[in-house]
Amino acid sequence: MQSAEQRLPSRRTARDLTLLIALTLTIHVPFIGQAFHLDDVYYLDVARNVFRNPLFPLDLQSVFEGKHLTLWAHSHPPLNSYLIAALLPVTNRRPSENFLHACFLVFPVLIAVAFYFLARQFVTMPLLATALLVTNPILMVCAHTLMTDVPHLAMWLSGTALFVIGMENDRSKMIYASVIPLTAACFYAYQGLGAILLLAFFALSRKRLRSREILILCLPVLILAAWQFSGYVHRGTVYMSAMFGELGRRGWWQPALKLKAAITTFSYLGAIVVPFPFVFCRTLRRPKGLLIYIALALGTLAAYFERSDYSWLQQVFLVACVSGGIALVGWTLRCLTTASSITKLSSDDLFLCLWLAGMLIACVTVFLGGSARYLLPACPAVLLLFLRAYERQNGSPSRAFYGSWLAAQLVLGLSLAQADYQFAGVARREAYEFQRGYVPNHQPFLFSGEWGFRYYMISVGGEIMAEDTTGSPGDPVVKSRLSLGRSYDFDRFLEPLERRSYRIRSPLRLLDVHAHAGFWSDGWGVLPFWFSREDLDEISIYRVKLQ
Fold first, then answer.
1. What gap in Å lies between CA 128 and CA 421, rounded to an integer?
2. CA spacing 20 to 30 A to 477: which of 44, 86, 444, 465?
């Protein structure tokens, strides 16, 4: 029988997990009806191709921004689409927003559970650390899509928790079990390879990188390599080679893009990972506040590079966001290395520092542009480092400080999630209103646009335009301004009919070129979000001229 001392931690763990799971579901259940959004459409396309080509679902011809290409060059392995394909038969292979989003709720729940157990290894308040991650605005927005970011983080944290806890407690079964989520993380996103390197360092720091650990960490890499080789056998080129070729064609290594990605990375870090008022509250308490002055100088320099047509309020907000991100990283690392109770970084500190540094470097160098969702794998490391630094300086956490932080990011996260819900719904509304007004009898029509606009236009019978598209006289044509609608040589044969503008009730913008909001992509701006009452999108409707 368990003693009272043994039962108490078990009851505390059960209580904490119950609270965290309830909080997670309360946050996300209201949004399961969100329209398919952004890159959801491409994962759905690959998922439906699984039924036609189960071994090579990425072997699929497509059109993107008017160019014919193959999804062989997709930036993610196909595990996410295999999961969607496994769920589609439940709804007769017709994707259902409510059903798929409800099924994907397992991932934010898994994040909460896995991070709670992982946080217990690094901080004294794992419930607080996990609550801060669960209510993080990036996670709250990304969890309502079918993209890989949240599932990838769930697998990353699950594998890391199993490996770290198994090694700390000498539990071989947990170490062996970690290979499953670690492999899944690699097949959700190539960034999962970063977890393999981090855990290799963790084992090495414990002087326990033996044959068992090497086997466990090498197995996901070997399986990924075997899958790459199968692609070479099938088409004569590996998936990653095709991916980097496509990135190169789009100017992946242009210095201007890398600089912009660096600005957006720190902007999102200081606005929605740890909001800058809370960062400044900590850094201003340092002697002479030197760090904050350096951060403000760099933030001002970043705003100078992006000053084109930003209003003065937007520039001030950008300076605050970038400065907050720089100060957050600087304060956390400085506190860890200069705390009076230690003379050097512990292996745990260095593990978390490498985790954060690796993800920040990847956000700047690996991806084509900047996006808040790319920072998701860095969020756990940021929170653990922040809490460890705070605990060393102040002992027990301040209820006022962390209570305010939790409340602020919960309000911000729900506001952004609601704005994104409305943003996603615009494409669905555009498609169904266009169908009622112009193609009530399922007449063929052409359209130009991506993301959810693409999915819903195809669902009502549309055909996406390419550079070599030709239409029949009288066919309707519709283009979306926001969703990357393009102009073609064929446009000279089009007769304008109507323009329709679409607004959303929320004043928040996550993707808007006029508001310079680029939460999803810095191609629209480097602000994590902004406010606007302007139209969100405009569709232009044409007809192919009668001859």
1. 28
2. 44
